[in-house]
Automatic annotation (TrEMBL):
The keyword Transmembrane applies. It comes from Marinomonas hwangdonensis. The chain crosses the membrane at residues 6-25. This is Uncharacterized protein. Keywords: Membrane, Transmembrane, Transmembrane helix. Residues 224-244 are annotated as: Disordered.
Length: 260
């Protein structure tokens, strides 16, 4: 076998090897791209769930804006990997919603904590969001100060959600005229906040519930006082009527005796 033939065979074999390596690298790149797309789509669903399912009273404005910004960033990464008109439209809609929310001064309506299953679901969202914050910090998409602040808030919200449930029951009892039950429920709401009562975040809520308890107690005392005054007046009226009746009887008897 001549050297030319050997050289040609080596080139062919080398070409096959290079082509196989190229195909392998191309497949690896395709799989890596698919992996990134799957990961980003999972993050997309995750952040959308936080935005949609965490009740507004547990989602401060700056936290919600950060979630909007993360959503937009994820859309941008997806569009680099797989340009798509639907994704572009969704990204545009989210950006518009974020701008409107940022400019709005209207307070979002709180969601009543009226169901224990809802409370459990919200708590699960809090725990998931804590993990997401740590992951985002590792990915350098949020700074450590914000992670610390949001984590403290989530710890407070973990207790506040129970307190809000009892406050809901207290308000329901108050509107039904069950004042004693209403007071018990608001006091239970305060006891739910006991583990975090020293935190700055809890102070305004504790003060609010304490004021409500005092207002209900004052209202009950006023009602009791009015009831006692009403009873006294009724008693006086009854006494005056008895006196008048007795006078009438005496007068009638005197007139009869006088006729005899």
């Amino acid at each position: 076998m001549t050297s030319v033939t050997i050289t040609v065979l080596l080139l062919i074999i080398g070409g096959f090897i290079a082509f196989a390596i190229y195909l392998q690298l191309k497949e690896q790149a395709r799989l890596e791209k698919m992996r990134k797309v799957v990961t980003l789509n999972n993050q997309l669903r995750q952040v959308t769930r936080y935005l949609d399912d965490i009740p507004s009273q547990y989602q401060p404005k700056d936290m919600r804006l950060w979630l909007f910004s993360r959503l937009i960033s994820i859309y941008d990464q997806l569009l680099v990997l797989q340009p798509d008109p639907t994704l572009s439209r969704r990204r545009r809609n989210i950006a518009e919603e974020m701008t409107e929310f940022q400019a709005s001064t209207q307070k979002r309506r709180a969601k009543p904590m009226n169901d224990e299953l809802l409370i459990m679901e919200v708590k699960r969202l809090f725990e998931s969001f804590k993990s997401f914050l740590l992951t985002s910090q590792a990915e350098k998409t949020i700074d450590s100060d914000l992670v610390h602040r949001y984590s403290k808030l989530l710890n407070f919200y973990h207790y506040k959600v129970n307190a809000d449930h009892h406050a809901y029951l207290g308000r329901k009892a108050f509107l039904s005229g069950k004042m004693d039950l209403a007071i018990d429920m608001y006091k239970e709401a305060l006891s739910q906040l006991a583990p975090v009562k020293e935190s700055v975040e809890a102070q305004s809520t504790i003060q609010k519930f304490e004021e409500i308890v005092r207002d209900i107690q004052d209202d009950m005392a006023l009602q009791q006082s009015e009831s006692e005054v009403s009873k006294d007046l009724d008693s006086q009226d009854d006494g005056e009527l008895d006196d008048e009746w007795n006078k009438f009887i005496d007068s009638s008897g005197f007139q009869k005796k006088k006729r005899f």
